[in-house]
Design a protein that fits this description.
Layout: H1 6-34, H2 37-43, H3 52-75, H4 81-102, H5 109-129
Helix pairs in contact: 1-3, 1-5, 3-4, 4-5
Length: about 140
């Protein structure tokens, strides 16, 4: 059995992280964007004290961020948007952490920090370690 090179294993781990984080943010974003506010208040109590426009904006941001984690890299069209999306989602988690701290919702902070760390891992990995190059990128530049 042939053993994978560390760079191949790292590349696969980045894709797994991207897919999982994208799925989470796509679901969270779609929920905040499409669920009626009354139902959302039952699922996420903080939404009852937050303007609907802000909740919908957060949902839109999470949805677009989730798409940005995978589509540019997968399609190899503007793949530099993938680490940018990861950094933007890391920022969302920083803001969510401060928001939840201000409301005394300390139980939610752990998840924010985990998502922050995964997003930073993706941003760093796709920017510095194993970037994905756009279609038509010269093969000689990869060596």
């Amino acid at each position: 059995m042939k053993q994978q090179s560390p760079s191949r294993a790292f590349h696969i781990s980045l894709w797994v992280a991207q897919a999982l984080l994208a799925a989470l943010f796509l679901m969270a974003g779609a929920t905040k964007l499409l669920t009626p506010m009354e139902a959302l208040h039952n699922m996420m109590p903080w939404t009852a004290d937050t303007p609907e426009a802000l909740v919908r904006f957060i949902g839109t941001s999470e949805l677009l961020g989730g798409l940005g984690l995978v589509l540019p890299a997968l399609l190899r069209i503007k793949p530099a948007l993938t680490p940018t999306a990861a950094l933007a989602l890391a920022l969302v988690q920083v803001l969510a952490t401060f928001f939840h701290l201000s409301r005394g919702e300390n139980a939610l902070i752990g998840m924010n920090l985990v998502l922050f760390a995964i997003a930073l891992f993706i941003a760093w990995g796709r920017k510095n370690k194993i970037p994905i190059h756009a279609k038509g990128y010269p093969a000689s530049a990869l060596q």
